[in-house]
Specification:
The chain has a domain of 75 residues. The longest helix is centred in the N-terminal third of the chain and has 18 residues. Helix content is 15%, strand content 31%. The protein is of the alpha+beta class. The protein is built from one helix and six strands. It has a six-stranded antiparallel sheet, with no helix packed on it.
Length: 118
């Protein structure tokens, strides 16, 4: 009886470590977007945008396709389609262009742009 219990206990002891996905790659949802949950943004090309949330938490949103006006945008709109939660079913509005979000994950802050003088 002891031989059967020990392997089963060992299986349950390691199960949570195997079942938990990495925190960095997990999709997130940002609730209550209409109350100022997003404070700023920074574009990284025409397919990725970093959104700064409350308490300086950064989110990385990858877009389904190129959003041509994103690198030059001064402001972006968030379209959640009658929901108060920003997630991967939402889209960005950039200069009249609708850009669908493919994935939204919590990320490290984006790198600062280097300023060069001419």
């Amino acid at each position: 009886m002891k031989q059967i219990i020990l392997p089963i206990f060992a299986l349950f002891a390691t199960a949570p470590a195997l079942a938990a996905p990495p925190q960095a790659d997990r999709e997130v949802r940002i609730p209550f977007i209409q109350f100022g949950a997003i404070r700023g943004f920074r574009a990284d090309g025409d397919r990725v945008v970093y959104l700064r949330g409350n308490r300086r938490i950064w989110y990385r949103a990858e877009l389904n396709g190129p959003c041509f006006n994103l690198p030059f945008a001064l402001r972006v709109g968030l379209d959640t389609r009658f929901s108060s939660t920003l997630d991967r079913s939402s889209s960005l509005l950039v200069e009249g262009e609708r850009c669908q979000i493919a994935s939204l994950v919590q990320a490290d802050p984006p790198h600062r742009r280097s300023r060069t003088r001419r």
